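Input (GNAT family N-acetyltransferase):
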Amino acid sequence: MPKLRDSLNDMSIRPITASDWPAIMAIQAQCYIELTPESLAVMQSKWQASPTTCLVVEQSENIAAYALVHPWPQGDAPSLDTPITLIKSHSWYLHDMAISPAAQGMGLGKQLLEYVINQATQLSKHGIGLVAVQGAKGYWQAQGFLPATPSSTLKAALKTYPADACYLYLTLD
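Output:
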């Protein structure tokens, strides 16, 4: 993967396009070492369900990060490696956010999350849920996400994630 610039000046956040998927899949493979990466079909199902909320960070004409975000009920999560279809919900689910190893430490994750939160707020969403994996619970809590008591359907979904998986929710004003 080409080296990314150390500056955020030439960064843009935009919706995913079909030509972005090879780079997205490469980033996923580089970032998720404690779980089996999801298939292209499963990843694309999130995008197909909500194409305007699934995003990439493009920097120096390279994909540096991505976020798969889609409507999903508060207090619940889709099972890992399972395709989804569009559902109506007042909450969003941040299914996946990954930063290329070449771009880590540059603040892209914070800017991408801020973009998602601003978009959700503008659309009057109640909040954003996610499942933290690979020791990321502390990172997400530092961003304002809080643990929630899992429902029976969430407990079933969490069984498809690694043992350290934790559902968190960010309530938006």
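The mean pLDDT is 91.
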